[in-house]
Amino acid sequence: MTEKLAIVLLSGSVEKLAAGAIIGAMAAQYGMDVKIFVSMNALLAFKKENLEKGKFVTEGEAGKAILEKSKENIVDMLRNAKATGNLKIYACSMIMDLMGIKKEDLVDIFDDVVGVATFLSEVEGYKIMVI
């Protein structure tokens, strides 16, 4: 049986986004089924305008180092993981509605826009990690 991992990204900090992306990418590359739900402030990091302008929140030195020295940004890491493994990414419909975000405002890595109930039904039986 294939292991299954669900990751819920809530924080918009570079450190936590990178941790979620790295864990998700590695799990997918090791053959796990991975589903990532992006909600709250994490969703803002995936807006095209924020990515283009480099508008990121860091919590400390690790985040600054990631921004300065990383050869691959979080979106590219997730895009590559989707190409090589079974990884799906979902945007939170409630936060999108509350913040007036449209799917076309986001980078093109999302498989769907869903609510919490739909995501939870999709990941029944998965190990769930909240970041």
SS-based structural class?
alpha/beta
- Cα separation of the termini: 26 Å
Name the poorly predicted regions.
Answer: none
Largest sheet descriptor: 5 strands, parallel
Top CATH class: Alpha Beta
The name of the CATH topology is Hypothetical Protein Ychn, Chain: A
What is this entry, summarized?
With 131 residues, this protein is of the alpha/beta class. The chain has helices spanning 14-29, 48-53, 61-69, 74-84, 93-99, 116-122; strands at 4-9, 33-38, 87-92, 112-114, 127-130.
Structure write-up:
The chain is an alpha/beta fold. The chain has a single domain (4-130), classed as 3-Layer(aba) Sandwich (Hypothetical Protein Ychn, Chain: A), CATH 3.40.1260. It has 6 helices and 5 strands. It has a 5-stranded parallel β-sheet with strand order 4-3-2-1-5. Helix 1 (14-29) packs parallel to helix 4 (74-84). The two termini are 26 Å apart.
List the helices and strands and how they pair.
Blueprint lengths: L3 E6 L4 H16 L3 E6 L9 H6 L7 H9 L4 H11 L2 E6 H7 L12 E3 L1 H7 L4 E4 L1
Parallel strand pairs: 1-2, 1-5, 2-3, 3-4
Helix pairs in contact: 1-4
